Amino acid sequence: MTKRLTAFYWMTVPAVILFFIFMTLPALQGVYYSFTNWNGFGKHYDFVGFKNYVNIFTDNNVGNAYWFTFKFAIVTTILINILSLLIALGLNAKIKFRNFFRGIYFLPNILSVLIVGYIFNYLFSNVFTIWGKNSGISAFSTNILGNENLAWIGIVIVAVWQGIAFNTILYLAGLQTIPTSLYEASNLDGASRWQEFWKITFPLIAPFFTINMVLAMKNSLMVFDQIIALTNGGPGRATQSISHLIYTGGFQGGEFAYQSANSVIYFIVIAVISVLQLKFLQGRETDM
Amino acid sequence: MRTKTNWLVLILIAVGTILILFPLYMTLTIALKNPEEMTRSVFAIPTTFHWENFRNAVNMTHFFQAFRNSALVTLCTVVLTLLTNSLVAYAIARNMNRKFFKGLYFYFISAMFIPFPIIMLPIVKLTSALHMTNLVGLTILHTVYALAFNVFVYVGYIRSIPVALEEAATVDGAGTWGTFWRIIFPLMGPINATVGILICLSTYNDFLLPLIIISDQNSYTLPLVQYIFQGQFNTDFNLAFASYLMAMLPMIIIYLFAQKWIINGVTQGAVK
Predict the structure, then answer these.
(1) What domain of life (chain B) (predicted)?
(2) pTM of the prediction?
(3) Closest chain B residue to the Cα of A254, Cα to Cα
(4) Which of A158, B55, B128, B189 is packed most tightly, with the most Cβ within 10 A?
């Protein structure tokens, strides 16, 4: 039996070592550097205590990145969930070519986020503007990605277009777990479609709602590829997300230590939000 | 009423697919046009197919090299992940009553909450110190990072396989390794399909990890190539779109043939 146990140890130990070296160690190094003033390439650095952390709270660029990221993440998460639930309900109805439509709606999920971003970048600058001019709405006759106040909406559109795919499939899987006999019963009781949705459908797919909300929120808070492809954080810093700020500041701006402190805060924020969301939504699941 | 086709829903769903397909239609047609045809109409189907866009894009971006790199990294990551991550999960799943393995379980899955940017800056220093700023390094990192999610998914699955099977094998004199490879691994088909599909998609489409660790031109992956050549693309949209289309095509082709598998795999991965 001990021989058997030894084998089990050998199965895990190499993985643990690699995981420690490439995951835990860099995370700890990040925390370590966040207390220094290292620029990322020089030989010399000093410990500065909590100075980086203090500065982050008064840094306009950081505040701006958090504002954009949260605005983007909340709007995107809500839109993705509403739209994908509607599409899933449609796909779950008695319609022809259901599998064909399902295949189309899922297609964006398999495409590279970066390349989809580049395609939409072109559409925003050269195609949607044609419609804007024809329809006479002045806000849409110019490229919205170049507009400081509207650029974030462009990024939301691209993220929603692609994000719907995954959530739709999950909601559809949830809807298919509901036995049709429940609907037959509610039909006999004379329940309206609206009541049916809120009293039967929604409570029964609550676990899927939880997963979808948490995943969509986490993905949106990490937004990076879309930013690179669509605006590169611009105009000015209007669409700079937190990951984009850490990337540009840390690698190109000589702020290695400072952005490490930023990423530690970012980690805490994401962890807290994920846990709160899970707690809140799972609490509701049992209520329903 | 419910037994008949719901025409209103069908129409709405069909209209929705236009929104999904429109950007892809534009990609395909722009990739086949030349600038003159673009000025005539952006939307129209091209009258003559300008295949030279693809030839030019292949030459400019060294497409086949980038494709080879992407395919190699994706394939190696999938194989390596399936073989190693399942093994680790097996050892954990069968020893959850022991502190060490239970601790490992939580150690691995807690990493799902670590956002990549927190390790992004140090990992660049680390990989360059270890001479891992190449495709091999990329494959190793993808495989190691996959552990967090895969241990979670695999352990759940392995625990549903009855231990009795292994006990019988042990009585017959099979060792722990042999039991895993001959008895357990073949039983993990469905979950391996799920993990394989997810890893294939995420590795092939990944941009951030290659962006920060790959510096040698000959090692660029497909998404990285699109990023690097943006400056040169800006003047020639037809060429750019030909390049985008070629980069997306391998996954689209795989999707056309394995659509059902992929959708099921992705669903299983998330529901677990």
Answers:
(1) Bacteria
(2) 0.88
(3) B121
(4) A158
